[in-house]
TLC domain-containing protein
Amino acid sequence: MTASVPLRVTCSLITWLSLYTWFCHRFKHCSYEWSCRLVALTHGVLATCLSAYVGFIDGPWPLTHPGSPNTTLQVHVLCFSLGYFLFDLGWCVYFRTEGALMLAHHMVSILGITVSLALGESAAEVNAVIFGSEITNPLLQARWFLRETGLYHSFTGDVVDFFFVALFTGVRIGIGAWLMYCELVSPKPRWYIKVGGVIMYVVSWVFMVSICRFARRKSMKKYHAWRNRRSEELYSETNGHLKSH
């Protein structure tokens, strides 16, 4: 790992800490989690855009070039996200807001990025994993903010939930399986990079199980609410046309 990489990661960490401090000052009447979620939302949007550009435009393509040498732009993006994950992991541990699964997800992400930077290779697929992980993050944060502001049980909340489930299923599970297959069959990536990819995909499936349970519960509630409304409408219509004897 070159000497400039730790410096970039440190600058990234300081930037996220500074942004969090500014949010805390700007929204001092809100909770600390509110400010942390704003930081997470900011990183989610920026990381998705940057990793998409690196993966789809700048290259190399992660599905055909896993294990390839890191490019300068890939290193910048990895350092950018590594600083955030270090900040968020520290925040979650300090405030004890997340369970073991989310902490494991963060630690595997930090380890994977660090190993890729140290080896000088495999940034293509690591960057792709960041894209898949962060593309649903803005929607996840939007769900939390809608709950906090009392707007979750609305049409907007339903739209956010729909796109969150659709993106998670299509990108993290569907495209994630394709990426993992390409990673495993390629002879270039190191074996521990492959193990890290499998672990991240397994973690995604654990999240997916919880999401499926949530989607089923919400769908059933919506269905029963619709049936109740329909029954009330039919009763009102029928009662309104009853003939008096």
Q: What stands out?
A: Residues 191-240 form the longest helix (50 residues). The mean pLDDT is 88.
